[in-house]
Amino acid sequence: MRITITPNGPYSVSGGTPLHRARQVSTEQGEPVAWEHDAPLPTEESYSLCRCGASSNKPFCDGSHASQDWDGTETAATNTYAERAKTLPGTGMSVRDDRGLCEHAGFCSNKVSNVWKMVPDSESTTVKTQLAGMVGNCPSGALTYRLAGASHDLEPDLAPGVAVTDDGPLFVTGGVTVERADGQPLETRNRMTLCRCGASKTKPLCDGSHADVDFQDGAAH
To answer: What is the distance between the alpha carbons of residues 197 and 95, in angstroms, rounded to a whole number?
Structure first.
């Protein structure tokens, strides 16, 4: 399963990579707490997904990128998460944070607290459990965690595939390889989010710009 980025064009998805829609499940206060996943969308073995944000057949490409004034240049960091992430030390667990990957999905905070304030109190089983859920739902993988004394992060068990989020990025899971058009390396990870509004300043990754430009994909929410 592979996603190949074409120069100033769409994402070319191959290898029978499953595609489906997913949306955030929120509390009455509007705080996201989980993901809801739909059944797979019908696709061919290979298909193209819109990257410029202008397609009339979202999430699929309809060739609109050729007539749009947009820049698909890739500017995402080419080093590794381990090299970039800052560690937030705790007593029961530690959290690593790479702000450059954040797409502002909002799972990391609620009206009471946030991940950064909670980590120092992670000796508490309740806090530790809550942190694991908040970090594990982070779609970009900007946040990861490991238990005290462990040598590796604990990642959610996500099947390889692509989820189209409502009015947001492509949520790529399970270690699907993404190849940049410029030939530069892009680390393969369990969770990552790819821009599909055309406005991100860290292409091909999402930086939350879809909210700033009021991107709408036309899906029934």
So the answer is: 30
